[in-house]
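Lab notebook, bench 4. We co-purified these components, and the gel suggests they stay together. Before we commit to crystallization screens, I want a quick structural picture of the whole thing.
Request: model the full complex, all chains together.
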Amino acid sequence: MAEEFSTDGMLDMYLFENGQLLEQLQEMVLDQKDADCFDEDSINEIFRTMHTIKGSSGIMMFDEITAVAHKLEDIFYYLRESHPDNVPHLELVDHVLEVEDFISNEMEKIRNGDPVDGESGEIVATLDEFLNKIKGGGGSSKGGKKKGEAIPENKHEEPKQFYIAPVATSASRFYKIYVSFFPETEMANVHAYKVVYALKEIAEDLLYSPEDIISDPDTAETIIKDGFKILLQAQCTEEDIRKVVGVGYDIDKVDIIECKANEFLQGFDFGEHDDIPVMPTIDLDSSVEEIDARSKTADGDVPKEEKKPEKPAIAPGDFVIKSKEPGKQKKLAKDKPKTEKASFISVNVSKMDQLMELIGELVISESVVLQNSDLKVPGLNLDNFNKAAAQLSKISTDLQNVIMSMRMVPLANTFQKMNRIVFDVSRKLGKDIEFVMVGEQTEVDKNIIEHISDPLMHIVRNSVDHGIESKEERRDSGKPEKGKVILSAKTEAGKVWISVEDDGAGLDRDKILAKARRQGILDDTKPDSAYSDKEVYQFITLPGFSTNEVVTEYSGRGVGMDVVVQNIQAIGGALEIESKKGFGSIMSLKIPLTLAIIDGIVMEIGHSSFVMETGAIKEFVRVKEDMMIHEPNGDEYIMIRGECFPVLRLGQWYGLEEYKESVEEGVMLILEVEDKKVCLLVDKLIGEQEIVVKPIPSYIKKVKGLSGCTQLGDGSIALILDAPGLIE
Amino acid sequence: MEERSELKRQVDAGSASNESDTQKGKYMTFKSGNEFFGLEIQYVNEIIQLQAITAIPETEDYIKGLINLRGKVIPVVDVRLRFKQEPFEYNDRTCIIVINIKSMMVGLIVEKIAEVVEIKEDNILPPPNVGRSDRIQNKYVYGIGKVGDTVKLLLDPDKLLNDEDLSVVEQANEMNIDEE
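Here is the predicted assembly.
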């Protein structure tokens, strides 16, 4: 049996779907962390999420995950049915996040092929305690424990996932089905599940007993002993059902009895009262609520058919409820069909890359066709051709845009993670912080997102930890006690700006300077005032530089900011720091939209074309020979507006042929990288265009100053110059 | 004899694909300088006309640069320069043989493509060790194939591309190791 359930495809699907569910869950929980309690929709949603995770983990046999999910599901079941008033909301949020962490962790282990060895015991125990606590408020003294046992109550919800929208019509027929398995069948519960699964296809409504077949292996015995009972509402004949259920090697016999609707509604009145572990030995006080609960759920789920409160019948065996008080209809949201699931597919990135390459080729062949020299023959009437060509160009441009947008992912997920960090850190540090996200829909290339997550986390942590002051300090300085951290993203000039703004203490210029002096970073001859704010703040990005006196759990060790800057620079970004003492600081990451496409200036030296990223070029200048300064050792400098720049003649440096010797014939490019400037002499500029960056084949050893190559419109190849490499 | 059986094993292992039967024992031959060379056909992807080459600065002289093969950027190597022979003028007979070794595509610029020939194993001799250790190209040549009256120098493309300056003895040793 096991091998049937352990195929890789299923596992991938399991991880993927549950990963998404957990992300949604976290987002929702954090969304409402500041509210007094979860609203009804979220309670339902969390309940459903846990239910789904429980179900799928059960199938995949990850028992620990199942147990934890089940426990949390219990809590939310209780919340949604009983609406207790005294729920400590933050504690609940903590519990949900704890569960989420546990499951994510386990899933990570599964993904890496590590043994799934997480222990659910502790979490389950705390959750139990919590459940008892919130129940304790309204119940009898022993109620807690008793309810704890009564937890299986929520299993009654289990069949829910099989409620195909109850669209019963007069053509619907009702059946009772008894399936008996051979006594020697192993894991009869799983076999039973197979039957249920098959029936799901044709069922309008479906109940079965015992219900907990997925998560409770003990039901196997019950099924063997007493048979597996199914109530089915469907528009089909007995014949059809037999076909669906089938009689395999494991099924002994299948009895199908057609019954009336009202019988159906009565549930499993199979007349065997002694057979099932009698869960609903209900003590009257506490169970009214339970019964109500069931009825509410039932009515909520099938609101269109008042005549079908059949769900109470879920209680197996002796526990049969006839009907509900109609007045008690609850406004529980109906299960919404999860349409968004169908609208996404995951695609292998390599396929996307392939597609992108193909489109690149298409664009180039297009230009070859449209600018073909055969068309240049004088006297040709090309009106129709030109029309068609324009259409073709439009489509290929659209295609390019689409493929680029396919690689773009909104920052929302990354921002959500930050939300979580702010929540965790602020709770631990006892700070009250309002976290605002702006522009989380800003889209960035997937590769880049992977690179900014960690740096961003550092910055956010810093803001919360030593940006925002403690409550007392804030009160003393006349600020509202509640701190504020704003995480925002926007696109500007082909770059993405992500900034973390806090209204905390801000950076202390004097403190940083003093520390810098102590560490000997400063030039001793310069007074403090010679350093601009910008320069001073950059010091905190140096390795081993932290002004925080106290090392906390989260920051202060002086590692962090330098790593942040390194990571950001690795993807061609930069970090800017603004701050005002006493009013907070803003850390901005400036990041390219994508790694694959850059804006570049195409230029020519001799017969070779080169491309330089537009961002690195400060300006173009035409110069005169008399501005040059020649050193005896061959080094050259140039004076431009009173500033002296080293000159690099690319043609000479790379030993190219037929490049222009005279500086007056060529063009000077002033490049600036991290305040270092250099002048680059090239023959002429061709134009600016978007460049698809391709790596230089690995066969060729790395050449200093070249970072890749690209294809120009005419199909030729240009080399991409790497400004930092040239400056070195 | 030893080497030949080794070689045979190599050929058998290397051509385990579906096309192994049709490709086995076939060699793409081309002319460079005065000699004819042969490349096992399984390495050959295609043969293209000479096209615009973008030179790369600061590389070995035999690496002529990059070409754009339908959107793929591949490096090209001038075989004559690789063999330390005199450079030659490129003309319209000059071709680029695109080979694929260990999923790396490289173009070889050759003076003239000759033909595809079949060389039986019996007609492949190991390169003479004696008295020729000074000849630099020996290390790329793993065998000498006889076709009628002429001989083709059979090239090991991997060695051709990677700049290992091994002596012939070392090379022979390494060949044995490689093939095991």
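Chain A has 23 helices and 22 strands. Worth comparing against the SEC data before the next meeting. Confidence is low (pLDDT under 50) at residues 1-6, 138-168, 270-341 of chain A.
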